Amino acid sequence: QARSALGPALDKATGTLLYNTAARLKDPKHLAFLVGYIARREILTDLQLSAALEYVRSHPLEPLDVADFERSCGVGVCITPEQIEEAVEAVISKHRAELLAERYHFNMGLLMGEARNRLRWADGKTIKNEVDLQVLHLLGPKTEADLEKKPKAAKARLAPAEKQKVAVVENGDMGTETQSLLEQLRGEALKFHKPGENYKTEGYVVTPNTMALLKQHLAITGGQVRTRFPPEPNGILHIGHAKAINFNFGYAKANGGVCFLRYDDTNPEKEEEKYFTAIREMVEWLGYQPYAVTHASDYFDQLYTWALELIRRGQAYVCHQKVEEIKGHNPPPSPWRDRPVEESLLLFEDMRKGKFGEGEATLRMKMVMEDGKMDPVAYRVKFTPHHRTGDKWCIYPTYDYTHCLCDSIEHITHSLCTKEFQARRSSYFWLCNALDVYCPVQWEYGRLNLLYTVVSKRKIIRLVETGAVRDWDDPRLFTLTALRRRGFPPEAINNFCARVGVTVAQATMEPHLLEACAREVLNEQAPRAMAVLEPLKVTITNFPALKALEVLVPNFPADESRGFHKVPFHQTIYIEETDFREEADKGYKRLAPGQPVGLRHAGYVITVQNVIKDVSGHVIELEVTCTKSDVAEKPKAFIHWVSAPLACEVRLYERLFLHKNPEDPSEVPGGFLSDLNPDSLRVVPNALVDSSVHSARPFDKFQFERLGYFSVDPDSEEGKMVFNRTVTLKEDPGKA
Question: Domain tRNA synthetases class I (E and Q) anti-codon binding spans what residues (predicted)?
Fold first, then answer.
């Protein structure tokens, strides 16, 4: 096309413009239009081309307003050398004082930018040459001082304590010292469209009604970002849902918008009230508050009305193929696809009245999806009462039909979903446009998966049924209720999602990365206490008082301003069995005959005087003497202890599965149930903990010194507390 106007030999500048047009233009219907302007030499610069491409992207409807287009792209605008000279003079005059002070160390790019702003369509090279010339005239040639590099301003270094805070979330808000989730989601970070500019998204289908519908949409929303988190209420949320919650609620929050919690309750057979409650509880536990809580069932009447309209428009039909017949990627076409509209309307009404049995009739939409699936089902017959609508309906809409229309009703701006829904994007756009209703934009992102676990509802149900785990909240699982029960703070889960980031590719992560996030948060949040898992009785024969002493223990040793708690110190204390050996090996630093040890926080050093054993030779008690730390020789180690303690049960958790991918037949040929770790739970029934925790409630968290981070389990009873170990104090190198 260009050669027909310019001849066979095209100059390099024109060739570059043509190449950039072909490479950057998303909709080829405007290609000939733009090439014409380049061939006629009416678009001469890349700046003009960028403006032209933005114009056609922003004006999807034909015909284009040629005069407005040419005005927006600088067509016919002629910038004279005199205009450039005057513009540069004005800019240099404005910055004259700084130029004379800083000379050639002044940021010349600032002069260039301001001159270009005054003359948008001027040639950049010509402006640069004029700036260089006028600066030289003002300052003269460069001196040796001008050639010296300008010293860089020293960057303030973060203190170690500040580095710890880089990604700690509080109530869904992240710190700003690093690339937080909110920073990842704010403004242009994801290249998402602005509200009302849906048509600028690649692949978005524009109809003659699109612009009017978008105008109505903006009038309703005021240009506000709107997202939604749409779980099915037939199971408990897991770690993958945490990413979806953070993404949907976080994107809205980062951009001053709102997020709906919408239950996709279109399958009454599998839905239970406990799932509705647990889902909302987990969303709020992660620190997010829904703008509104809605249900797909809120819109059943409207969805049914639209289904009738879809039939009237010839875009849907009642079909009698069985489920087995339409399964798979290449099912036979429906023999009822072209049945008369009136017939489908009558049959669909019969479906609603219950005249067809389950599986005898469906309503199908006339369209082909990306994956080749043809005519997806919109409605099916189910004689199951709905938890909210009772027995009003015996036909229920499918996800493919419901989801985009509910998004449309709620005026969602960004319908964010995981990558497996990409194959449904065309049906999403098609259905909204087929009904001439507002069409949101579907954006896909990569799922978050964890190794050494399963998260599918079906598989978790199998684990519960076989007794491998107790329930959905068993702390060895990675459901959100399980993570909460184990003691993971919500901030740690949000931080983990932020570190994974919002990626298009699926992310499969090691559990130890989540555990590292938990340690960071718990180190700041969990007050210290002392507990002994395998107690060994120790009697201090020269105890320095007639009654118990009180020892002050800092809640957070690194920051004593956060308070202290008192623990009793009696003549009888208990230490860990493993903190005593009858013979001290080389490198062993704890208690042994002839090797004293310090008691943490007590201010005393103890020395073994007598080892008492039972009939089998097992050590059951030590008799020791104590010396104040300030007069005793400094011991090699300090150990934790308890005195007048509370009895408690401690549950120690390891990975539930032995292999990274328990669902992979090549890794685990016998199936995931054959891969269970027999040591995933160790119960310590007779542990002891210091009395400072006596008033703790379920989910309260502590660091048991030298042992790890622990959380109070809801199984705790009066007189017998139960603690779950959340994570150890340090990562086990064997797990990394």
Answer: 638-713
